[in-house]
Amino acid sequence: MMATMKDVARVAGVSLGTVSRAINNAPGVKPVTMKKVQAAIKQLDYVRDDYARGLKTNSSQTIALILPTIWHPFFSEFAYYVEKALYHLDYKLMLCNSESDSEKERAYIQMVAQNKVAGIIGITYSEIDQYVSSNLPFVSIDRYFTEDISYVTSDNFAGGQMAAEQLIKHGATQLAYIAGYSQFKNETTRRRDGFQAYLAKTGLENDEIFEPEPIHDLPKLLDGLLRRRPNLDGLFCVNDFMLLQVRRILQQKGIRVPEDIQMIGFDGIRMAEDEPSELSTIAQPVAEMAQAAVDILMTKIKNPDVLPEIKVLPVEFCEGKTTKPM
After folding, report:
1. Which of 54, 117, 234, 245 has its CA 20 to 30 A from that of 216?
2. What PROSITE patterns does UniProt report for this protein, alphabetically (predicted)?
């Protein structure tokens, strides 16, 4: 059976209130008393119940992170850096693998009102707009809501321009963009905007597969693109996960990457922390995005009246094996 604060008080020979003040480093606890309490805690192997404490004090040291899926490498890496940032602030992470289930996400939002979590960082593409208000300690990644909500994003428009520029620099002359898009407005569509804006200035031919998510029958859509553009030699994919899917289909058709078609993705996914991506990609600053989201959320928790903040972070092109060496 786990030890309680009453057990600590009994062993230390002090009152329950004194134990509480000592554990919370409140002023007025004598050094000799503090030593008694600490000795009792060590003897009993006492662990403070932060959840119960949060209910009593109307506060929590836990942050919820809502992700569409943990299987996407970018989301997994983002979760890693959020947890790392929270740990240094003595906060814990609660992960919601939502699978775009609005009811599941709503339940986590309600946990803020119940003081079970102090705030939420959300990458969400489901119908929760009505539950997200400007006074909620909530930081969104990429997505906009009806009410003004703080959000963190990378410079998606510049990333789209960068992808077009690099494909051209690497010798591609007939380009296309491939993406699925959410029904809920978010920053990722600006990748397409930037790509098209850059190409509009060059006069180069371009095409696209731009379909509502989830994309059905991608091989068939690629067949159509290749029939329309038999000389296609450059592809920009909305993210690295899409690039991997498209590359696999192309290779099954006997089309070589990068010899026949060069490809650039978006995100900068890696298989390990110290390994660069094997893909040519527009890399997002994942660690900086996670830190910015945590910083903005902590400010909102401490000062609920603070105005919403928008943080846009720069991206960079990382050379991999899906473009030709220059």
Report:
1. 234
2. HTH_LACI_1 (PS00356), HTH_LACI_2 (PS50932)
Q: CA-to-CA distance for 180 and 255, rounded, in angstroms?
A: 22
- φ, ψ of residue 59 in degrees (nearest 5): -150, 165
244: CB partners within 8 A, 6+ apart: 265, 279
Which is nearest to 146 in space by CA: 184, 109, 120? 184
Q: Which amino acid is at 173?
A: T
**Residues in contact with 157: Cβ distance below 8 Å, sequence separation at least 6, in sequence order:** 190, 191, 193, 194, 197
Per residue in 175-218, pLDDT (tens digit) is 999 999 988 888 999 999 999 999 999 999 899 999 999 899 99
| Residue extent(s) of CATH 3.40.50.2300 domains in the chain | 59-154+286-313, 156-284
Element (H, E) at 82: helix 73-87
Contact between residue 184 and residue 125 where contact means Cβ atoms under 8 Å apart: yes
